[in-house]
Amino acid sequence: MKVALAQISPRLGNLEKNFDLHLKYIEKAKKKNVDLLIFPELSLTGYTLKDLVEEVALSPDSNPIFDELKTASRDVSLVFGFVEEKERGLFYNSAAFLSEGKIVHIHRKVFLPTNGMFEEGKFFAQGKNFHTFSTPYGNAGMMICRDFLHYGACYLLFAGGSDIIIVISAAPGRGIQGKEAYETSRMWESMGGTISLFSSAFLIYCNRVGFEDGKHFAGGSFIYNP
């Protein structure tokens, strides 16, 4: 299996531009014979949405953007982040896994940080579950950013038989010292290696880059082979 990580910088609130950016990376991935292409958290919308949440929300079952991405997934399996609209005016910070022209799985972020610079709990509904699901490449599980900082969530996935754990993220960089990497980047990579080792699962982490609303997103994406 050949995996590629699209460590992009989405434009805040601009679905059209971000969708076009996804299509460009999908074309690049096809030319390189990539099997699975992974984008960061909220890759279709940008992160600091606040009252833009409702404007950029998508319904996976009836949306032209999803329809085109499903079609693209016949050539390259995809993971990407988006705002999911559900009944009763609920909006979720979600991740979709598309393959062979179908929606394989959607994960809704469970642990919504609402402290300091983070305000997710004010604008998003909370997901409830972590599931292992079948893919063409083995059993997989997905988490979104803060979900990964809860060991119990990781345990649920590898206890459920996940061979691949996919984490998509929009994690700002903090704790820089001189020319060294961000302390937060070191933390994510250290946790990734530890979880991969203990679970005997491949650990794939895709974080975004760029500046948005005063935050610098640190990148530092990686893949661990157990």
Summarize the structure.
The chain is an alpha/beta fold and 226 residues long. The chain is 27% helix and 30% strand.
Question: How would you describe what is shown here?
Answer:
With about 230 residues, this protein is α/β, with parallel strands linked by helices. It has one domain (about 5-225): 4-Layer Sandwich (Nitrilase/N-carbamoyl-D-aminoacid amidohydrolase), CATH 3.60.110.10. It is built from 6 helices and 12 strands. It has helices at about 15-30, 55, 65-70, 120-125, 150-160, 185-200, and strands at about 5, 35-40, 75-85, 90-100, 100-110, 130-135, 140-145, 165-170, 200-205, 210, 215-220, 220-225. A 5-stranded mixed sheet has the order 1-2-3-4-5. Strand 4 and strand 5 (about 100-110) form a beta hairpin. The longest helix has 17 residues, at about 15-30. The radius of gyration is 16 Å and the shape is globular.
Give the secondary structure arrangement, pairings included.
Layout: E1 3-5, H1 15-31, E2 36-38, H2 53-56, H3 64-72, E3 77-86, E4 90-99, E5 102-108, H4 120-123, E6 132-135, E7 138-144, H5 151-159, E8 164-169, H6 183-199, E9 202-207, E10 209-212, E11 215-218, E12 222-224
Parallel strand pairs: 1-2, 2-3, 7-8, 8-9
Antiparallel strand pairs: 3-4, 4-5, 6-7, 9-12, 10-11
**Number of continuous helical runs:** 6
User: How are the strands ordered across the major sheet?
Assistant: 1-2-3-4-5
Give the CATH topology. Nitrilase/N-carbamoyl-D-aminoacid amidohydrolase
Output the CATH homologous superfamily.
Carbon-nitrogen hydrolase
Portion of residues within helices: 25-40%
Low-confidence stretches: none
Mean pLDDT: 93
How would you sum up the major sheet? 5 strands, mixed
Inertia-based shape: globular
The level 1 CATH classification is: Alpha Beta
Q: How many structural domains?
A: 1
Query: Could you tell me the number of beta strands?
Result: 12
Instruction: Assess the beta-strand content as a share of residues.
Output: 25-35%
Alpha-carbon distance between the two ends: 15 Å
In CATH, the architecture is 4-Layer Sandwich
GO molecular function, one term: N-carbamoylputrescine amidase activity
Keywords: Hydrolase
Domain CN hydrolase: 1-226
GO biological process, one term: putrescine biosynthetic process from arginine
